[in-house]
Structures are given as structure tokens and as C-alpha cells.
Design a protein that fits this description.
By secondary structure, this protein is mainly alpha-helical. It has four helices and two strands.
Amino acid sequence: MNQGNIAGGRTKPEGKFELFAWLFMRISGLLLVFLALGHLAIMHLVNSIDTIDYQFVADRFATPFWRTYDFVMLVLAMMHGTNGIRTLIDDYIHKNGRRLFALSALYAVSFLLVALGAIVLFTFEPVK
């Protein structure tokens, strides 16, 4: 990864994609903090452990808001993590063939996990 030095020993990304990826990590990280804190507040502070059961989740997923909330959190978390691992692969795997294989595997697994999560979120039907 080609990066130039700036003051304080930190590096500034060069290239449009790397700059976008760098900005995405900061913005998605901030959004994920609020989404995760909201999730924790609803699931563990507002509701007691005695009220969280299958019916609680079924009622929660009965509204499009909570399905969308969880989907946004899923997609942002997976993209944030995938971008972080992509950076590690670029930093530590130097042979082009191995890097291509590692990145391909990373993107395939990430896509599969997001697809499975989306299927669960959007096709969940409560048992009567």
C-alpha cells in the first residue's frame, strides 16, 4: 500500500479508493458505535433478561424499523471489518497471487455472511 508521511508519523492515504476506504472506516466506525449502543440499550438496559425470549424477538421483527436497523448494523459491521482485513492483507501479503486469493476469499465469505444475515432478517416469520 503506497502511503505518504505527514506530521506526527501518521500516514495519509494516496489514491481515491484508499482515501474513500480511510474515510469510510472513520464514518462507519462512528455510526456503528451509536447503532451498537442503541442495540445494547434496547436489549439489555430497557428490557430485563426475563423479557427477552423468542416472542420478544418476533415482536421486534414484526416492524420494518427493527429489521432495517439490524440490517444496517449488519452491513456496516461487515463492510467495516472486511475493509480492515483488506488493509491487513495488503500490508502483509506481498505476492500478487496470494493477495488475489486472500482478497477473493475475504470478499466471498463477507458476501455470504451478509447474504445469510439478510435472508434471516427479511424472511423471518414467527411461529404461531
